[in-house]
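Q: Joint fold for the lines below.
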Amino acid sequence: MNRQVAFWIIALLALVALPFVHRDPYHLHVLVLILIWSFAYTSWSIMGRFGLVSLGHGGFMGIGAYVTALLWNHLGVSPWIGIPLSMATAGVLALIVAYPCFRFRITGHYFVLVTLALSGIVLQVITATRDYTGGSLGYTPQRAPSGKGLFALQFDDKITWYLIALAVWVAGLVIWRAIDRSMIRHAMEAISEDEDAAAAAGVNVTAEKLKITLISALMTALAGALYCQYQMFISPDTVSGIAVSLQMVFAAIVGGVYVALGPTVGAIITIVLAEVLRISFGTKAVGWDNLVYGVLLVLFIIFLPKGILGSVIDRIKSPRKPSRGHEQQTVPIARR
Amino acid sequence: MQSFLDIFDIYLLEAVINGILLGGVLALLALGLNLIFGVIDVTWICYAELVMIGMYGMYYLVQVFHLPYWAAAPLVILLVALLGAALHFLVIAPLLTAPPINQLLATGGVLFILQSFATVAFGIDFRNLGIRLPVLALGEMNFSYARLLSFGAALVGMVGVYLFLTRTFTGTAIRAIAQDRQIMPLMGVDPKRIYLVTSAIGGGLAGLAACLLVLQYDVHPFVGLSFGPITFLICVLGGLGNFIGGFIAAFVFAEIISLGGLFSDLEWGYVLAFAFFIVMMFIRPAGLLARRS
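A: Joint structure:
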């Protein structure tokens, strides 16, 4: 155990030291993107691993990004206050939609489609209020006057952003681990196997599901706000809507939803793939990255439902077990 | 004041009728999705993307190969039907025993594939058939023939499917397997074949919808996103697998969008429809026509 702790500390120190050794701005840019998206995918997986497949997370991310930017541009509210406010907005929305869902036992397909409607609403509202949000053309937070970068949470150098993103990403993993070791996890696993049995065993099904949804939504909104502050440009297509929701599901599943670093692996694979395709094919690459994603997603769901990292870890832990049968039994996703 | 009310009423009536016309096409889309869900118990998230491929098919047959519309339409219906069968054979069949969420996500992957395939193959330009159908003026109201035609063809398509399901042996087998999938193999029905036929019919309905939608809308790789989500919501609102519920829900949705669009932007019509959907899910979680348990 001590050796494991030592390993993680060394790995973390290496990650912190990285930007001071390797200063290539493009590489740092890609790393920041990977960290921010990893955090978003981790947030999704916190729910997704228990069979609560949500396509509404694009909506939460959009709220995080747009509320922060709108408060800054129109009211001059610093993102230090705006980000908590945007997270609260996303949390309230999550509770409003999720409470009745869980109360009335809307699960499986129905839950997926209700959350799909949620991200649809957010996308349409952003597009419809184009006088304030710029509509589908996108939106840029105003540049802060020089010297007030910290107040506005706007930094020009990549190293600062790398460290912020790293801290948030680590926080995401810590939250994952805390949940992994808490009662919530056992309760949620029981719920995803059989809601009635879990309720009979004394689990408050609605409350447990709400907790996990709230945590996930708050984290996703934070990811959206960070993405907005870093990129300084958001558009409905890149931070909200169904496509973003599907992107989260995709990356999380490719990496593996049942292990803490799975979503991160998913983010690394998808972003590096997109960047490599973009660099080697230029504008001709438009569409190719998604084509590869789509094929991978289908293949993964058919052949490796635990994702790359999940399967690799399985292979290391039990090398002799036939993998096929093993995978089948360990997909604890709620049936309707 | 009086004249203002008159104009207002005419617009209202026009919006209501346009809503009904829109509802016809939405009902057709919902029927295909419901059929797949009711029989195979799978949600094709990529259903609208099949429609998009069909719309491109129409564009190429009509604009590039100069086929007349009436000759191109059956070809496209056949093409999308084959695509539906292929989708089932390649993606759904290996996942039939997997958890339903995995099936749903796999079709989400197909959505990515079809969308980006269209981007790569056809580019992101907006294209249309270049066919302009005249506008029917009825008093002070205007209705495009494209919408009337779509509505009529959608109704014909739905009646055709209904007759197929009730009057033929295969149709009866499809309905039977939707009721009990364990017992039907014992009755001498091969479920694999039935699933393939159902998928082909579902695809064919998407093809028909494509032929009709291409008359009204430009086609681009992401056109599926503009009516795909609404189709799922209609199916869920009507109760997944419930044909009549889906039919009614399609018209309810179409009216909300049409009337919401009358009073404000079209987007607000959609927002209203989505919000209505979420509220309805809490009042009637199992669909409009479901009895509460």
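Q: Anything notable?
A: Chain A has a mean pLDDT of 84. The CA atoms of residues 66 and 225 of chain A lie 8 Å apart.
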